[in-house]
Design a protein that fits this description.
This protein starts with a strand and ends in a 27-residue tail after the last strand. The strands form seven sheets. Strands 18-20-23-26-24-21 form a six-stranded parallel β-barrel. It has a four-stranded mixed β-sheet with strand order 1-4-7-8, with helices on one face. It is elongated and about 120 Å long. The protein is 3% helix and 40% strand. With 548 residues, it is mainly β.
Length: 548
């Protein structure tokens, strides 16, 4: 079929099963230029699709039988192509939109305009083999491909995430949220040792169990491979001086402060407390054995007040579970002591408050270094505080509220270094999750988030240097509420920021920026969720198959 033809029709302009257009020029004005398109063989013809107003909508030329092999040997809109691509109906118009190319505004057909385009292959390693992406349900704008998500079926195990460049507006809030203070003092803090009237006790393997039933000062020294010190329930006014003591227990805590008791513990000389209970006892089917399991070298039971101080060195070995454990509504305060803690689980774990006012602490823990279900406090309101070196942890500092007033804190963690969270959610109705820093210095080396809050972060005073592993799930600073950074805070964040909008990336410099401008971030490495890894921070969508 050849020659010059002008075709006008209400439906299809040219139709036929094995239609052959050998040469010629075809100007077609119809709702569908050629039907069925995938059946015709065009060896030299020029076909123009014309709108109802007479304008050329699209042009096609020099087609061969490649459509039968699902290929189109053409170069659409490359180089000096004179093919005009406008918005219009019909297969040719849709084809132009599908490839998203902007074309020159010359309506002259060009028979060389279609070399070397490969029809999209839908089964590549760039997409799930289970995707369902019907062409009629796609919206493809030139230069900007958009696929309706409702028509895709994505298998998570086969998704490849390509983040590309990420931009996030990271802006400090106008004002901080309220800072809720934890236990800064307890009743045991004011107790004074009365050495003149003290009771002096030496423990040995033959005489290793000490029970305290009344107020007073007790000085305990010696060594025992299986002994313990117990302060009876409800006993107040107890000053317990541990002086050059080496005490190990296989049946419970080496030092146990029972419910509602009040004890000041003074460390003098070198003191070692080791919990060698059988870890399996905690889950024993024998109720008596399970109830007797303390899982800590030093245990402060529910409602107790414990204040640990002194100029000696305390070594805690929590071989069974935790190093130090606090019960419900207990208050544990550390002030002035030098302490080394090694623990199979948490270094310090309390169901309520933990406070470290001063002293030197080195902690190696397989889970949290210091955990408080309620409020964890580091330092004093005057800006002074302890030196804390967490050499190993899963998470370093964790509490529903974490407050740092002062001191020098260094955290190494395999997960979040500082985490305002509570997995049990015990105090969710009472407290808002928050991390608040009013002074001191915080240095973080983390494989997870540097600072993570399920609520707010207030950086009011002091300084923080954050080095955390930058990947799709972790950030230097990660928060779900608001972030406030004062002019007085010195922040050196060498990782990323992930705010409540889910955006994240790597800021070049975030020092002294109370109002953070828009940041441009470098590309992240490709990641996938084959192992159901957490995809926090910036979460790019699944790849759209390449349209090359």
């Amino acid at each position: 079929m050849g020659g010059n033809y002008a075709v006008k029709a209400d439906n299809s302009g040219i139709t036929g099963k094995d239609l052959v257009l050998n040469n010629g020029h075809f100007s077609i004005q119809a709702s569908e230029a050629i039907n069925p398109m995938n059946e015709f063989i065009n060896n030299g013809a020029v076909v123009e699709e014309v709108s109802r107003t007479g304008n050329i909508v699209s042009a096609l030329g020099n087609m061969n039988n490649a459509l039968r092999q699902q290929e189109m040997n053409a170069n659409y809109g490359v180089g000096n192509s004179n093919v005009q691509q406008n918005t219009g109906s019909g297969f040719l118009s849709m084809l132009g939109s599908f490839f998203g190319q902007n074309q020159p505004s010359n309506n002259t057909p060009n028979t060389q305009a279609y070399e070397n385009i490969q029809q999209p292959q839908m089964n590549t390693d760039q997409q799930s083999s289970d995707q369902n992406m019907p062409i009629e349900n796609q919206t493809m704008e030139p230069g900007n491909q958009t696929t309706q998500p409702g028509n895709q079926t994505m298998q998570p195990g086969n998704q490849t995430m390509q983040p590309g460049n990420q931009t996030s507006i990271l802006e400090s809030a106008d004002s901080p949220t309220e800072v809720v203070a934890g236990t800064m003092t307890n009743s045991a803090a004011s107790l004074e040792a009365d050495y003149d009237n003290a009771t002096y006790i030496t423990v040995t393997d033959d005489d290793s169990n000490v029970e305290i039933k009344s107020s007073g000062t007790y000085v305990v020294t010696g060594s025992s491979s299986d002994g313990n010190i117990t302060v009876k329930k409800g006993t107040s006014g107890v000053v317990l001086v541990l002086d050059d003591l080496d005490l190990t227990s296989t049946t419970g805590a080496t030092v146990s402060v029972n419910k509602e008791a009040e004890v000041k513990i003074i460390i003098s000389g070198t003191v070692t407390l080791t919990d060698n209970e059988n870890p399996d006892d905690e889950n024993s089917t024998d109720e008596a054995i399970a109830d007797a399991f303390d899982g800590a070298a030093l245990k402060a039971k529910a409602g107790s007040q414990v204040y640990v101080t002194g100029d000696g060195t305390l070594t805690i070995n929590g071989n069974a579970k935790n190093g130090i454990k606090g019960g419900d509504d207990s208050s544990i305060i550390f002030d002035g002591v030098t302490m080394n803690i090694t623990a199979a689980n948490d270094g310090v774990n309390s169901n309520y408050d933990v406070t470290l006012l001063s002293g030197n602490y080195t902690i190696s823990a397989q889970d949290d270094a210091i955990h408080a279900d309620h409020i964890l406090t580091v330092g004093n309101t005057d800006g002074t505080g302890p030196a804390i070196n967490i050499t190993e942890s899963n998470e370093g500092l964790e509490g529903t509220v974490v407050n740092i007033y002062g001191g020098d804190v260094q955290v190494t963690s395999s997960d979040d270094a500082v985490n305002a969270a509570n997995g049990d959610g015990v105090y969710e109705g009472e407290l808002d999750y928050s991390f608040n820093m009013m002074g001191g210095n915080l240095t973080i080396n983390s494989q997870g988030d540097g600072i993570d809050s399920n609520g707010n972060i207030n950086l009011l005073g002091g300084s923080a240097t954050i080095n955390s592993t930058f990947n799709g799930g972790e950030a230097g600073i990660d928060y779900d509420g608001q972030l406030y950074i004062s002019d007085d805070f010195d922040l050196n964040n060498n990782s990323s920021v992930a705010g409540p909008d889910g955006m994240g990336g790597t800021p070049d410099d975030m020092n002294d920026q109370p109002g953070l401008p828009e940041q441009q971030f470098a590309p992240e490495p490709a990641m996938n969720d084959d192992n159901n890894q957490k995809m926090g921070g910036q979460q790019p969508g699944p790849d759209i198959p390449s349209m090359r």
